[in-house]
Design brief:
The chain has about 325 residues and is α/β, with parallel strands linked by helices. The chain has 2 domains: about 140 residues, Rossmann fold, CATH 3.40.50; about 180 residues, Dihydrodipicolinate Reductase, domain 2. It is built from 9 helices and 13 strands. A 6-stranded mixed sheet has the order 9-8-10-13-12-11. A 5-stranded parallel sheet has the order 2-1-5-6-7, sandwiched between helices. It has a two-stranded antiparallel ribbon with strand order 3-4. The longest helix is centred in the middle third of the chain and has 17 residues. It is globular, with a radius of gyration of 20 Å.
Amino acid sequence: MSESTGLKIAVVGATGLVGRTMLRVLEERQIPCRELAPIASAQSRGGEVHFNGRSYLLSTLEDGEWEGSEVALFSAGSSVASEWVPRISDTGIYCIDNSSAFRQEIGVPLVVPEVNDHDLMPNFRVIANPNCSTIQLVVVLGPLHKQYHLEEVVVATYQSVSGAGQRGLNQLLAERSGQTVDEPEFVKPIFNNVIPSIGKPAAHGLCFEEWKMIHETRKILAADELRVYPFTVRVPVAYCHCEAVHLKFKEPVDVVGAREILASAQGVTLMDDLANDVYPTPHDCVGKDDVFVGRLYQLPQDPTSLDCWIVSDNVRKGAATNAVQILEALIEKQYLK
């Protein structure tokens, strides 16, 4: 598929933090694109974005510039997605949505390509992009589950402010410089602080981010009975989410074997040499598309367990890159021609 015969791609939310990154990742991965339809809010209509050496005017969904696209990448929030994804997908356009609007709907694949691109089918025009903290978790869990069969996941997240978009970044930067934030994104100050709740309250004392991690992990791994115990925390870091993970398997785990599995797993970079201070941090991982894992260990009295530390750029692999990889999978499967 050459550029002249490539796809028409709509990017909904093209001026947002994830939308801008989607455009950059589309360029970097050389997705064949004959035409771009960048879509934003009414306030941005008539502005320009630059893509593949060309300038494109921003329009709104109501303007209908998305018509004739083969695929639409959505990063505009659940309310916009709930209204527009069904309308656009009904015209035959594949919609890859980064919001939580469709992730738990029956018949909507929730896809991390390294783990479950087999869930993509030509007749499924709506495809959900998982939550950022779930994506990096399952990239590591997938190959381990295949070998040792997961029973339980205990995960504590350390999530950067960019997970809340540009407003989250703005709040951290403002507070760091001593400014007062009139409309803060977070319910408490984030500079020099950690906030042990992400999203609205959900059932059983969970917050919504934790609820998402439970149900999305089960759906992606096709493991409805998997026990998942998440605790999500916002930390004053600009980019990259970190996760401390304790895993229980049905079968004994060989730590050396687990390292070999992860070292060869698609989309994973292993950084695991504690004696020489080799382990992933946000500083190592920002701007990169892999999921990084290190600090693998197992206590002698628990041979069916494994602990690890996972870090990934939440705006890239946790959102924009994963969506573009789904698009690549659709092309590879020849669903998009």
